Give the backbone structure.
Amino acid sequence: DTGVSQNPRHKITKRGQNVTFRCDPISEHNRLYWYRQTLGQGPEFLTYFQNEAQLEKSRLLSDRFSAERPKGSFSTLEIQRTEQGDSAMYLCASSLPIIGTGELFFGEGSRLTVL
Amino acid sequence: KNEVEQSPQNLTAQEGEFITINCSYSVGISALHWLQQHPGGGIVSLFMLSSGKKKHGRLIATINIQEKHSSLHITASHPRDSAVYICAVLDMRFGAGTRLTVKP
């Protein structure tokens, strides 16, 4: 399968624990995006990378959130000291930068439940 | 006010009807995306467009850059078209989505 891969697909954790999600984009895609989606809402932008450089971070990305893409391939999103409000679907997407914005390919998402 | 506004929020149609979903945005853009999300499923990109009109099967997307408005049309709607349709612009500002239900 050459699509965008995310894992784990589901994560249940207790409040205060740290969690990490991984995203493997389509191999030739140099742009990688992280979003958060809660029930009934559209996705909210969190951050994006062009290769290994993190080019933009949303104000939604508090100090407890950190994202990395160390070699410009896969990316990780870590949430420290999780809170119940962090419960959401975390989506990853990748694209080529075609004329500034390429077609997006999304992973299936990682659903986080914080108890 | 959100940078991306979609209407309607919810839409119920009978099979075979012509569907229109609208998206208005307030930022300058180079391209706009229409996305589809099925319940419990991932998001699929339907269209990326920067001008004019694109057609794929029964789906048609149009954009008017001057008016900052785009529409997604579905001809001869079918129950399998039931999903949430989302428009997104720029560095991924998303509309809240339009939940479409097509009844047989």
